[in-house]
Amino acid sequence: MRKLILLIAIMFTSINIFAQTVYREIDGPDGEKRQLKIQIPRNYEKNVDTMYPVIVVFDGDYLFEPVAGIADYYSYWDEMPDAIIVGINQMKTKSEDFACDEINGLPYDTGADFFEFITFDLFNFIDNNYRTVPFRTIVGHGDSANFLNFYLFQEKPFFSSYISLSPSFTPKMEARLKEQFSDLQNPIYYSLTTAENDRKRSKTSIGALNKSLEAISNDNFDYNYNYYKGKSHYDLVSHALPTAFEKVYKLYKPIDRKEYKEKMLTFDEGTAYDYLVKKYDTIKSLYGLDKQIRINDFNAAEAALKKTEEWEAFKLLGKLAKEEYPESMLGMYYMGVHYENIGEPKKAIKAYQSGFIMNEIGRLTKDDMLHYAELIKADFGIR
């Protein structure tokens, strides 16, 4: 964790090397111009067919840079998708933006106007000017971490994931959250954070809420709670954000050794091929992203199928590889493995030889294709 935070700190000084930050103004709910910081993903102009999730950051005057830096770092390593990050500067308007009724705790007057400003004005601007998908995340700290909860109470929650950093709750908020999460009809990710040296009132109320939320049994409620020893209301931010993004995008990230052993190899709904297809179907349905299947994940499926000797599934894997990488030899390699292990040596040789004239990919080379073909010839005495 310390190494990650150090890397993020370094990135703050040179973030534009990796992604572009632009500054825009739009009309605010009070008639005044609102300043936005918007981080555009690297290669946005080049990848004209790519769509992006959106991360909204309250308190953008100080919280935008930590969020943008961590998101850029994780997306660089494909641990989360590239995202459009929108920070709202609120240094002069914070108390008005988050105004709530002292009795019922709901957005009131200028607070109600700001609530609608986000869902209508801000997202009309973002969706009309950038290529976005409906998967949206919102991040807040203190008062803004409380305010972001109100978007959960819409008939269909406007955001898909909520990162609440040391919230200062308004009246009745804890009870409302418990009721809402118990009855969720749509998948929601929710991250709640406090720390040992957090503000006393916040720490106490967050701890009590956590006990209630941990008792909720609802498959649509994906909950993450973080408590940091020795950290304060302010420095918990740099610790909580990496964890939150890891949890939000845990189904997106490449297949690692843990996922391979605990999920792919033990998948009870079919073969490793079926697991691979389901993983990317989930990425599409949950995040709204048409993600090309990674070579890393093809390699994981190959290793699992060989381990379980599911040779018929290699034919399906080969067809999938041809769809994903039509000019590469990957598909013909898998077809060769399929034919070789079902007792069709001549077809296997032909598949490997066909792969020889196609583009190399990952660890596969033209020499490999010739080598596999020659091994079969030697084993079966074929000339």
What characteristic shape results from the CA principal axes? elongated
* H and E string: HEEEHEHHEHEHEHEHHHHHHHH
Compute the number of strand runs: 8
Q: What is the CATH class of the largest domain? A: Alpha Beta
* CATH-assigned homologous superfamily of the largest domain: Alpha/Beta hydrolase fold, catalytic domain
In CATH, the architecture of the largest domain is 3-Layer(aba) Sandwich
Report strand order across the widest sheet. Answer: 1-2-4-3-5-6-7-8
Q: Please work out how many helical segments DSSP would assign.
A: 15
Low-pLDDT parts are 12-17
Mean pLDDT: 94
Overall domain count:
2
- Tell me the helix content: 40-55%
**Largest sheet features:** 8 strands, mixed
**Strand residue content:** 15-25%
Radius of gyration: 25 Å
Cα-to-Cα separation, first versus last residue: 58 Å
Helix/strand/pairing class, anyone? alpha/beta
CATH fold node name of the largest domain: Rossmann fold
Describe this protein with a few key phrases.
single chain, 383 residues, alpha/beta, Rossmann fold, Serine Threonine Protein Phosphatase 5, Tetratricopeptide repeat, 2 domains, 8-stranded mixed sheet, 48% helix
